Amino acid sequence: MMRVRMWGLVVAGAITLAGCTAGSGGPVSFGWFAAGSAACAAPSIWLESTEAAPGDTVEVLVSGAIADCSDQGEGLSPALDSVTLLLSVGEQKFELGTFDVADDGFARIAVVVPDAAPRGEATVTSPDLPSADSAPFTITD
Predict the structure, then answer these.
(1) What distance in Å separates the CA atoms of residue 20 and residue 14, rounded to the nearest whole number?
(2) Does one domain contain both 18 and 48?
(3) CA torsion 90→91→95→101, rounded to 10°?
(4) Residues 35-64 pLDDT 10s
């Protein structure tokens, strides 16, 4: 009987230390890692070059451009048909264009830095991917 109680205390302590309870269904956090039911990756925008002059072509990589998050066994989430890219320099915004997205949610896009873009720090974003981080960029001479 004493052995059963001891194991019961060990199991209860392990559950408490893990930060979860039976049937909670919520995320469990272990420092930098959080395990939970949601598993969709946020969309991303990367630039192959972080600086260019007006008129130069820059490669933009987009991933995770999906219509919704189907992470509960509903099947694959459909990709967006296209994404619009914007270049922001201070208060000025330049539409770089609207580009097709592959069925897997990825796109490799060649954009031209607008001639009218002022020199300085800029970002590339997409209104179609509001949860994506902006990609930093410097417009040079």
Answers:
(1) 9
(2) no
(3) 70
(4) 444 557 789 999 999 999 999 999 999 999
Same domain, 55 and 9: no
Beta strands 82-89; 120-125: pairing state: antiparallel
Closest CA to 114 of 46, 52, 60: 52
Q: Are 34 and 73 in contact (CB under 8 A)?
A: no
Instruction: Clarify whether residues 76 and 131 are in a common domain.
Output: yes
pLDDT (tens digit per residue) in 58-112:
999 999 998 877 666 666 678 899 999 999 999 999 999 999 999 999 999 999 9
Say whether 115 sits in a helix, a strand or coil: coil
Residue 102 burial (CB < 10 Å; 0-12/13-18/19+)? exposed
Domain range enclosing 7: 2-35
Mean pLDDT of 14-33: 44
